[in-house]
Structures are given as C-alpha cells and as structure tokens.
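Task: complex structure prediction.
Instruction: return structure tokens for all chains below.
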Amino acid sequence: QKEVEQNSGPLSVPEGAIASLNCTYSDRGSQSFFWYRQYSGKSPELIMSIYSNGDKEDGRFTAQLNKASQYVSLLIRDSQPSDSATYLCAVRDFGNEKLTFGTGTRLTIIP
Amino acid sequence: DVKVTQSSRYLVKRTGEKVFLECVQDMDHENMFWYRQDPGLGLRLIYFSYDVKMKEKGDIPEGYSVSREKKERFSLILESASTNQTSMYLCASSFPRVGSGANVLTFGAGSRLTVL
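Output:
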C-alpha cells in the first residue's frame, strides 16, 4: 500500500515565526503533490500544488519538493493565528487519478 | 458559489439500514471521489469515478458501493450500515491529470454519519 506520512503534531509556532511542515511518500513514481488546509469542522481546501523539484512560492507559503529523497514540505512565513489548522499532504499516484493523503499535521500559532 | 454539494450534513441511521449519500458538482469535472475521514486515520479513499458509469475501488471499498449515472452526480451507498461506518464522509471532484488544475480536488462540506 502506498504511504504518505506526516508528523501528526501538534506543532506549536509563535506568531510571526516560520512554520515548517514535512511529508514523505513511498511511491517513487508519484507525479503531483498537494497541500490542503483543514480548519476544524470544515472540509479541506487547497493551498499549494507542486509538480517539479525545487521551491514554489505563493505569498507567505512555500512548497518544496525533493523527488530523490521522496519528501515534500510546506513553509509558512510570518505565521498568523488564522494559520492554525490541520495541514494535509496529498500525493497523486502514477498513472491514475487517485490522491493519497497523509494523516495531517495539526498546527497551532501562538499569539 | 457552492460547487460541490452533499445532500445531507448530518445523518443518524440504525444498524442494517441502507444509506444513500448524494453528491453533486457544478464544475463539469470528470473525476469524482468519496473519502471518509476518521481521527488519527486521515482521509481514506472509498471509491472514485473518472467518467459516467465508471467506478474504481479505492483503498477501503468493503461495505460500500457507488453509482454515477450522470456526470455531475456521484452517490455512495451503504447497503447495510454498521457501527464501524460511523464517520465523516467527504465527496470531492477534479479535472483529470493532464492540463492546468489537474487533480486539484474541490471538496463538499461533508456528511457526518452516525450508525447506532
């Protein structure tokens, strides 16, 4: 069974600091990688997608992908209390439409 | 501006009942998915469909079936509900894996099912 692993946390970060979330995956053929944010009681929403090695920046968010080491990370700069949520890493299997999710990392930003 | 609509937000059913969970999307997406989400286990794929009348088993299909008679509608069926199917059920849809926006899932609000 293909696996996507995340540190479940909880991860606590002071307001204004950088939050770093990590994810590893088992399938070397995985093609597409996603970070979703899920607030308590809500459904997941996409915040970043990344398809090639390197960094991808979008505002305060940076996704990093290293296919050789099979990990993908999400950095949140200038963390805000509104960033407190569970962050889900998702990986698309090679050759099909399925996304496999990690169990999520719960992030708390401390004011 | 609702794009993926799940018919029921909360349901309470009894063991052995047949349960239908409905999902409709208005984005003309080819792919539709049913996940369940449980504490500590994350999101697990039950079934998905990449076209009308097509279905593929996900990671935990046992005890479930699906129906996709129209492109916009994907139904999850619990033939005989059991207590271990108490969960949050999330429907999602996406475009196929090629092109801009490929595989970006849009989720519905979820259906919380309790089986007594």
